[in-house]
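Possible regression after last week's pipeline update?

I re-ran a chain I had predicted before the update to compare outputs. Posting the input and the new output here so someone can diff against the archived version. Not blocking, just want to make sure nothing changed silently.
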Amino acid sequence: MTVARALAQWAHDHRADADDLALARRALTDTVAVALAARAHPLQPIAAPLPDAARWAAMAHVLDFDDLHIESTTHISVVTVPAVLAAGGDARAYLAGAGVMARLGALLGWGHYASGWHATCTAGAPAAAVAAGTALGLGPEQLATAMALAVPAAGGVQEAFGTHSKSLQVGFAADAGVRAARLAQAGATADPRALDAWLERVGGTPTTAFPAAPAVPGGLAIKMYPCCYAMQRPIAALRELRDKADGELTGVTVTTPAGTVHPLIHDRPTTGLEGKFSMPYAVATALLDAYPGFDSFTDEAVTRPEAQRLIGRVTVDRRPGETTTLLDGEVTLRLDFADGTALHSTLALPPGSPQRPPTDDELRAKLAACGPDVPDLLAGITWEGAAELMRTAFPAANGRTDKES
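New output (post-update):
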């Protein structure tokens, strides 16, 4: 059996339990909330000509506040939720696509991500095909065909990080999955072995042995700060020291496993988007701002003189060793002051990680941060209602939707 057929069969046969459904509901709420937070973002008019799934995924990812699957280093929901909404699906379709993305991402492995691929896109396009295909009522063989049809779009590189291209390529992956599912539904043919061949060529390990449950092994990490997940842990660690930092700061040393900061490619950021992928700026915003939120990741915030001064005082000690996820090991922060004193903080699990899930208060605070109207808009939201909300918030440039085309 091919990987595509095995994944398609799993997706078709999986029956959600209460925990799966709770995860799906949280994913829907979180994804739509972070998209609504970007309603006034400069990317919106740029993305307006794109199809629904592409437009919605791009807007849900541009603030980098969406959830992450730690084991596969993929933003599962930002691809699969828009694909499901664009195809008229529900929680079952989301869990099918999310489960395939988690399993396919695990087959790609850390080496795939560390070599520079954006795994959210590479694993995302075939997974979005399953999400949309399940919404459209496709059977296992058609789902496998849809995954094969999505392979040509399974790309995306980390050089996009810190630019609009990062969120746009996520949108392209979501849209490619919807397109592939509709082509499979219409009778297009493809060889499911294409997915196995692609897996090997991009450094993955083809296997057909998958865990049956839960839908998303390991669960999903919810971000507490709107920036790369590799910055969540150091920011949280520094916030424990912020109120104690009194005096002239002469240097900050961040000691961390090298692989866990792999996506932080901007040591001297000059824009808000670059600041979302910068360890030195993680230090600056954690120390300067009461809460490192949306206002901390604007061009003006990143280039303020006090932030740039702090950036110049940060040293990152990247410890070598084998890495498997962004949460391997722990991060240690040392703040040195002119009077010879120092403060230290060490953290393994940031708030919002699967092993340290967000509290109800933290989730409510995140929704409120996404906009004063967001908690009310999302109260009791259904999948159908979420699709209509996204169409209203992010209208297509031509006024038409995929539903009408």
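Follow-up from reviewer: compared with the archived run. The first helix runs from residue 3 to 13. Marking as no regression found.
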